[in-house]
């Protein structure tokens, strides 16, 4: 029988509901995270913004035996809970503090940049990717035109990532009303 969600995702979803945390990634993004992590079986997989651990759990579901997963969350109670969820697996590290704590673990083979980094220091986000490393960012409103726009204004941040000379990048629909940016650092 096929389960809809991996067990750790279901556990994180339960915690998010208990904690009233509403910013977890949607399952469509989660499956993307799982697939990206699985593509780098000995990779360093990173996440900024652990939240309730839902995205972490999706990344974990694709984690190879030789891979490592490091995630950071500035809200201590959320980080503590996520750390408890993955405490039995030495491949997973949950850091408490600002996203820049991740820098000590770079370069990243997969980086789900979801809480800190993508707006504050986009160039640094690109620097932290390994050659061939994959950056994933979600929660965009689909844009059909170039340059991409949001609410009538050019979306400079999305244009930065989609047009960056060191990235091969695409915007993909995750639902009819939401999109993600997937960008691979050129070797
Ligand atoms: C969109 S939620 C994360 C959801 C989670 N990645 C998931 O997919 O289920 C963003 C999280 O990032 C955290 N955050 C925001 N800015 C941060 C920063 N500068 N450093 C670390 N965490 C940050 C917030 O506290 C929040 O829990």
Automatic annotation (TrEMBL):
It comes from the Bacteria. The keyword Transferase applies. Gene3D superfamilies: Vaccinia Virus protein VP39 (3.40.50.150). One of its GO terms (molecular function) is transferase activity. InterPro entries: SAM-dependent_MTases_sf. Keywords: Transferase. This is Transferase.
């Amino acid at each position: 029988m096929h389960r809809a969600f991996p067990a750790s995702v279901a556990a994180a979803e339960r915690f998010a509901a208990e904690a009233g945390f509403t910013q977890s990634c949607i399952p469509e993004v989660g499956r993307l995270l799982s697939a990206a992590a699985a593509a780098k079986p000995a990779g360093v997989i990173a996440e900024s913004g652990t939240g309730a651990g839902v995205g972490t759990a999706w990344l974990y579901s694709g984690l190879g035996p030789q891979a490592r997963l490091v995630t950071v969350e500035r809200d201590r109670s959320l980080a503590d809970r996520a750390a408890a969820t993955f405490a039995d697996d030495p491949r997973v590290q949950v850091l408490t503090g600002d996203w820049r704590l991740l820098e000590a673990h770079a370069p990243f083979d997969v980086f789900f940049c979801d809480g800190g980094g993508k707006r504050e220091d986009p160039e640094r986000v690109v620097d932290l990717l390994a050659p061939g490393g994959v950056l994933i960012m979600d929660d965009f409103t689909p844009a059909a035109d170039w340059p991409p726009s949001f609410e009538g204004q050019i979306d400079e941040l999305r244009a930065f990532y989609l047009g960056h000379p060191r990235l091969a990048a695409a915007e993909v629909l995750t639902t009819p009303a939401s999109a993600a940016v997937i960008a691979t650092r050129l070797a």
